[in-house]
Amino acid sequence: QVQLVESGGGLVQPGGSLRLSCAASGSISSISTMGWYRQPPGKGRDLVARISSGGTIIYVDSVKGRFTISRDNAKNTLYLHLQMNSLKPEDTAIYYCRAVGPTDSWGQGTQVTVSS
Fold first, then answer.
1. Terminal C-alpha separation, the chain
2. For residue 113, is pLDDT > 90?
3. What percent of the chain has pLDDT over 90?
4. Kind of pairing, strands 10-12 and 46-52?
C-alpha cells in the first residue's frame, strides 16, 4: 500500500509560479513511476508529467518549458515535485499525484487556480 498526500496548490496570477509536492509513504520501494495529472473543471483527468524510477521524464506538450518534475527521497518517504512557472489560466485544474507499481495509487488532489 502506498499513501500519497499533495500540497502546494493555490491561487496565482497569470505568469506566476507554484510548486506542488507529493509525499509518498508506505511501500515506496515498490513504486516504479510517479506522475502528476490534472483535471480541469468539467473535463477528464490527463497526464501532465511523469518520471520513472530510472529517471525518464515525459511532459505533455502544453507544459514543456514551463513545468519541471522531480523526485527525491527522505527517510521512509518519497517526494514528487512539480515546479510550475509561467502559469496560464488554462492550467487551472485539480492536480493529482499518482504512483504506479504493483498497485496504482492516487492522492486526494490539490486545487490550482490561475486567475487575475
1. 40
2. yes
3. 87
4. unpaired
